[in-house]
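@channel sequence for tomorrow's demo:
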Amino acid sequence: MSGEMDLKVLLGSMDPELSDGVYVFHSMPADCDQLFQLRPWAIITETEGYTIIIDKDTATLNGIPVLDVFRRITLNVHSSLNAVGLTAVVSTKLAEAGISANVVAGFYHDHVFVQQDRAAEAMRILKAFNYSS
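structure tokens (generated this afternoon):
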């Protein structure tokens, strides 16, 4: 299944869902033995090492500094990785409200990490969203 490509359909059916968890982003060296034991939500390989997105409680229990905390909003529409505009429109709409949007694309869904204290507002914006906005 290749996913939806039509921006109007994507925006009209994205059905945002706020996760229960609270997440932190952290950088780890490439030779870190602890990486997979932490069970990160995501691992991103960068030149400087690994960026991990990890549950806040796991981070705290393992002595990982908690600088900023985020909530994850999943856009529950199977967007194609070749679709154009969904994350741009969503992040622009959130930016207009002063909310950062850290987007991670999965095979089936896009996930938007927003500041924990702005998550409810971000959900209101995304739920009220329609193509004519």
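heads up for whoever presents: The beta strands are 16-28, 42-46, 49-55, 70-75, 102-105, 110-115.
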